[in-house]
Amino acid sequence: MTKHLKYDTEFKARAIKLVEDSDKSVAEIANDLGIRTSCLYSWLKKARQPEEVKAAMSHLSKQEKEIKELKRELRIVKEERDILKKAVGYFAKPPQ
Questions:
Q1: What is the C-alpha to C-alpha distance for residues 25 and 35, in angstroms, rounded to an integer?
Q2: In this predicted structure, what is the pLDDT of residue 30?
Q3: What's the confidence (pLDDT) of residue 4?
Q4: Distances in Å between the alpha carbon of 72 and those of 47, 65, 75, 78, 86?
Q5: What local confidence, expressed as pLDDT, does residue 55 receive?
Q6: What are phi and psi of 12, to 5 degrees?
Q7: CA angle 37, 41, 43 (to 5 degrees)
Q8: Which residues contact 24 (CB under 8 A, 6 or more apart)?
Q9: Nearest CA among 49, 32, 61 for reference residue 14
Q10: CA 40, 44, 50 angle in degrees (round to 5)?
């Protein structure tokens, strides 16, 4: 199982600047920084996107977070509903 590391934006920006200013290959810079080459290529791709694309992606990210939260809330409400259904069935039984 791989562990996903989170790098701050400053680290990413410096890594991208190194690629743009250096004569070294992306693979060499990634190796020097101790990160995967594919990770650095991903950062470069995002950095070179037009601002309109970045804004749209940010908007989608916000929507994805909202959808995830709504799904979580729905799951909780369904669990509560099921518990209440069982409770109604239990209390609706005539006493013996």
A1: 14
A2: 92
A3: 63
A4: 32, 11, 5, 10, 22
A5: 74
A6: -60, -45
A7: 120
A8: 18, 32
A9: 32
A10: 155
Which among 44, 55, 42 has a CA at the least distance from the CA of 20?
A: 44
> Nearest 5 degrees, angle CA 71-CA 72-CA 77?
95
Task: Kindly calculate the radius of gyration of the chain based on its CA atoms and give it in whole angstroms.
Answer: 25
DSSP summary character for residue 34:
T
Instruction: Tell me the three state secondary structure of residue 47.
Output: helix
Whole-angstrom distance, CA of residue 70 vs CA of residue 76: 10
Q: What is the per-residue pLDDT for 1?
A: 45
Average pLDDT by stretches of 10, the chain with 96 residues: 72 89 90 91 84 74 89 97 92 77
Query: In terms of pTM, does the model score above 0.70?
Result: no
Q: For residue 48, give the DSSP letter.
A: T
Tokens of 18: 């190194």
